Amino acid sequence: MQSQHFETLIIGAGLSGIGTACHMKQHCPDRQFAILERRACIGGTWDLFRYPGIRSDSDMFTFGFSFRPWSGDQVLADGPSIRKYLRDTAEEYRVTDHIHFGVDLNSADWRSGEQQWVLRGVREGKEVTYTCSVLISCTGYYDYSQGHEPDLPDVEQFSGQIVHPQHWPENLDYQDKNILVIGSGATAVTLVPALAEQAAQVTMLQRSPTYILSMPRRDRFLGLLNRVLPEHWVYRFARRRNLMLHRGLFRLSKRWPGLMRRLMLRGVKKALAGSADMRHFTPSYNPWDQRLCAVPDGDLFEAVRSGCASVVTDEVETFTAKGVRLKSGTELSADIVVTATGLKLQLLGGMTLTVDGQRVDMRNRLTYKGVLMEGVPNMAWVFGYTNAAWTLKSDLSAGYICRLLNHLTESGQGVFLPIDREGCVAGESVMAALQSGYVQRADGILPRQGTRYPWRLLNDYERDKKLMLEAPVVDGVLNFYPGLSRVQPARPVTEDTSAC
Q: Nearest-CA neighbor of 19 among 469, 403, 398, 371?
């Protein structure tokens, strides 16, 4: 079997993979790299999800790349616009020719004797092998093959159609149909108003409410500025302003959760104007214990006010031929049921990761600066923020990786390896800031974080920016080697929340 070798391999051609490749083009122009992508197109999440109304749940001025302005005044962009933005970015920075499409990887093994990674997979039905000196995973954190499917009692009795948003049928006819959307997260609150435009009636069935904030669809102030100022000036202003607003909202929510809860619910009550019971919009948890849902120009509230959509808080007791019967005894009829029930988490795109033949159990490893893995040589992963726009952290991670690769070249070193946690024990997973169901379900597979930096995530853009893009790469914690005969295994994680 023929093997192809590259200095660096990037896994995934989605938001993180394209962004990382663009950073390498700018900051490591002489470094040879390739991108391996399982699908046939650029876009990752934004190419996979095609359900009605799909859009970003972060404003585009922080969601867009730091190095390429998001043009216009659209705040929450739709899926096709984001796909175009990614394709145009890849073309502008000449990374499209580096992508190998249709490569389904199943394993990655670091071999200390050769100081390289060996990746195996399938392409067009044939086994393929790639090798590289440095591996960068940009695969996101969920399973692209299937979403989370909860146990649906007696679902086989239902005579209608059941659809999961992750696999939306291209030509699904829902005009004048009764639709039941099960779920209350970002996907559900996006689907309901979009479906309501053509459906006879849309009902959102939730076990518990979510915080929902209305955001303007377009930023009219920026529209005015774009007429008189250069685009990059306006983008820089909008990005910094929105960063400050978002960070302020998060900090206030954590410091004064009761106050912020009252303010958010007051806004919802005003938007509903008495058209729905506030119990269906009043969460039991505090703001930012789970990610907030954003709706452009309050489109969900408008759909409820118009009577085209409704919200029910209850649980399914059983499916019937015509819909579902709830535990309260209420029956909801439906022609189509949409199970917007969340994601199934998966790391590294499902690849098995080994070091010298020994499997790496990531739930027993700490992450260094949220980018490198304890005890795993010459590997980085790009993982965005969970409490802000994903791209903010993925941009910083890519910038840090480029600094690290340049240091290897300049110092003549061959291997980087975070291994000594200096007594910093583990307490939580890398996604512990969220209490969402999909995070709790995946706690057993997620890497841990320690009790202090660089083994603990900060989730603070300004602090992360200084530490990752300005602080010295050589910090006394990350180890560098000209060569290794065999990598020392990392110590097992100790489940202990005491301070270091």
A: 398
Average pLDDT over residues 487-498: 43
Alpha-carbon distance of 333 to 324, in angstroms, equals 7
Lowest mean pLDDT among 72-76, 163-167, 329-333: 72-76
If you count them, how many residues does the chain have?
Answer: 500
Burial of 470 (0-12, 13-18, 19+ CB in 10 A): exposed
> What does the block give as tokens for 331?
């029956």
Structure tokens at 130: 């790639």
CB 396 within 8 A of CB 464: yes
CB 197: neighbour CB atoms within 10 A? 14
Q: What is the pLDDT of residues 288-329, one digit of tens each?
A: 888 889 999 999 999 999 999 999 999 999 999 999 999 999
307 or 446: which leads in pLDDT: 307
pLDDT of residue 3: 87
Indicate the pTM of the whole model. 0.91
Q: Are 464 and 458 in contact (CB under 8 A)?
A: yes
pLDDT of residue 96: 96
3-state secondary structure (DSSP) of residue 363: helix
In this structure, what token pair is assigned to residue 126? 């044939």
The one-letter code for the residue type at 134 is V
Helix (H, G, I), strand (E, B) or coil at 441: helix
Q: Which of 365, 386, 346, 340 is nearest to 450 (CA)?
A: 365
How many other CB atoms are there within 10 angstroms of residue 390's CB atom?
A: 24
Q: What is the three-class DSSP state of 381?
A: strand
Q: Are the C-beta atoms of 147 and 441 separated by less than 8 Å?
A: no
Pair 145, 19: CB distance under 8 Å: no
Q: Cα 416–422–428 angle (5° rounding)?
A: 90
First and final C-alpha spacing in the chain: 48
Question: Is there a contact between 66 and 398 (Cβ–Cβ < 8 Å)?
Answer: no
C-beta separation of 51 from 187 below 8 A: yes
The H or E element containing residue 221 is helix 220-228
Q: Distance between CA atoms of 103 and 132, rounded to whole angstroms?
A: 15
Beta-carbon contacts of 148 under 8 Å, excluding residues fewer than 6 positions away, are 341, 342, 343, 344, 437, 438, 441
Q: Give the phi and the psi of residue 331 in degrees, each rounded to 5.
A: -115, 135
Nearest to 288 by CA among 440, 433, 190, 188: 433
DSSP string, 254-323: HHSHHHHHHHHHHHHHHHHTTSS-GGGG--SS-TTSSPPEEEETTHHHHHHHHTSEEEEE--EEEEETTE
Give the tokens for residue 172.
């699904």
Pairing of strands 201-206, 178-182: parallel
Residue 388: both structure tokens together:
């802000």
